[in-house]
Amino acid sequence: MEKAGTGVGLSALIDVDGFGMVIGDYGGQCIVLVMVRGLPLTTPSLLIRPLVVADASQIFLLSGEEAYRTWLPSQILEDESQARSVVEFLISKHSDPGNPKLGPYVLAIEHRADRALIGHVGFSPFEDDVEVGFAIGERYQRRGLATEAVAAASRWVLDMFALERILGVASAGNNASISTLVRAGFIPQNERIMSFQGAEQLVAVYALMR
Predict the structure, then answer these.
(1) What range does the domain containing 192 cover?
(2) Is 196 helix (H, G, I), strand (E, B) or coil?
């Protein structure tokens, strides 16, 4: 990410019958983000929250970074208009189907001190399981923040959706992602050749158990 302080900053979290109502600000405007049971998640450094449309411009910038071009080419966005469409689609999936066993469930990663959107962590169907995917902006890499986000979000998803396990699938050459999965508690399962990010390649499969 090029700039800090351009994300949706958390102003208040109100608990309503076990649901978190997230009140934030974007460009000086106070907005209600969403009500989801158990969200947002807070860690020492991060706020993990539902996406909002205002995230689109930062997500577009993130998608142009080198790590996306190397490891996530299927997630590169052409322009902010496409980013907005993707974000709106992902937001709709929070309620329909609202379950990572049936459709994508993607959350924003916000740096608490900088009030900046720095990446995402998402969950989606994979064969008969649920797979985690994640990305952190270059400026915030090598600080353990991806591990912090993946560990917290994965544990929440395991509990929230009564899953027995979550899988992490990474290109066998993506040492950074594999290290993140291991530090977040995932254990190796197997390696296999499969279609991944638009190409047949060797991937490493890891699992986090309940």
Answers:
(1) 41-209
(2) strand
